[in-house]
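Q: Start with the shorter request: fold the first protein.
A: Done. Sequence, then structure:
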Amino acid sequence: MSAERFQPRATRYDIRAAVQYRLAAGGEWSDGHTVNISRTGMLIDAAGPDMPPGSSVHAVLAMAHTADTKWMRVLCRGEVVRTTERRPGGHGGLVAMTIDEYEFLPPSRGPLNDRPPTIDSTGPSIRIH
């Protein structure tokens, strides 16, 4: 038996939240939404260009934080763990990333501004307008 201690996988929550992400080295922010999220990572339905596994990545989530629907933004820093096959044209697909650290952003920082997201009519996803 290994001396390593068993650590169960973090509970994943099926939450669709608006997200913008990019390589940590910089570049344009791309839109997407979370498929699920846990304390250690998230799965993003990504609309942007390829994000190779091992890449450092930043992602900003828009999330409700009170019953009266005030919105907050959370900057997550991590690494791409895996991706799925790209859609036609080389864009889109799923990106799994770790969440190594995070911070709550004031309204004026980051790619998502302080305007509240609106609900997309095609389902429970949140789209930033």
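Q: Next, the second protein, separately.
A: Sequence, then structure:
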Amino acid sequence: MKVCTVALLLGSAAAFPSPDEPMEKAEKMMSMSMSMSSMSQMSHMGMHDHMMGMGMGHDECMELPEIGELIKRAFPEDVDGGIWNSNYLTKKWNGMDPALGGYPTPIDTRYPFEAVAPWLGQPGAGTPHHCADNMPADTQANDCPKLIVNSDNGPFGPGHTPPHIALRAVSETHCEAEDWFDYEKWGCDIPHDILLGLIRRFYPRDPDTGAVDYPPPVTEGTPEYYPYEFPGNRGPHWCTQEVMDAGIYGDYCPYEPEGRYRHPHLALAALNVYLANMYMPEQCGTEWMDQLPEGVTYPPQGWDTGISFPAMEDEDDPNSQPAVPYQWPGPLGLHKQGVPGLFGLSLIVTDENGDLAPM
């Protein structure tokens, strides 16, 4: 099998120019898809026997376009006649109608390793943080644990795996992508076992403890570097000192003020769209919406995958900070709803004594 030597190295300045520099032009693009509902047993590797469509072969593997260009092609922005917000400041409307200004969440893009908490009305619902259902309303999501496991073979699969890690793994191995896809079983999505195998190639578990380290996407020159992260004082979010002093969850704060932040899971989705379209052009279109599985709509009908925001200083300003003192939930309510998928209920649901099930 050909090993790609011209992959999009996430830490490479040549592969990821500054967002202020001119972007390279690409010939094709694609959006990633993976269903949250496969968080169970997964094998590390597996290459599928056949491809659908008349796409590009191994010998024609080309260098990937700049990732920001792929995102714009998969999610055409309003300034270019598309439906997606070009000035993205808050995750308040994510998982909802694009007209509100948000983008699809990892659940919507079918990233299988986000491991979010279910929407049962508890703090942290829809985030990777699992707060018990009897915790008070002023509990901050980041005070609750993420689903971290020491094996890929349990009921929660590999647990929470940051999307920028999968982005690095896919981009550095994209010349093998012809072998990944199986349209009859997975549509335009990279199969989950393939994706996990690629991740473990670069991020193996410790053979004794099962632990694995996932470096952050903020350090230039590292393989994980992602140039659309724009780190603030709370991850990619920018909180006022008053909000930080109040201990409020940083995800409620806005992104960098020029609206250029783009989620790594969207970059991964865009890369998936590009590769699927390259190798299966008859089945997989060039935009993320083109590659939705049969019967799936966006935004979803009857529910959404957004998180429950607190009251904000100005509910109409996407650059607004959370109100102090903290008031949760805000006007959008608890977001208590039955989102389809497999979830770690044992980390959320308490028994009649107020206890969680032993892990």
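Q: Describe the second briefly.
A: The two ends are 41 Å apart (CA to CA). The chain has one domain: 1-359.
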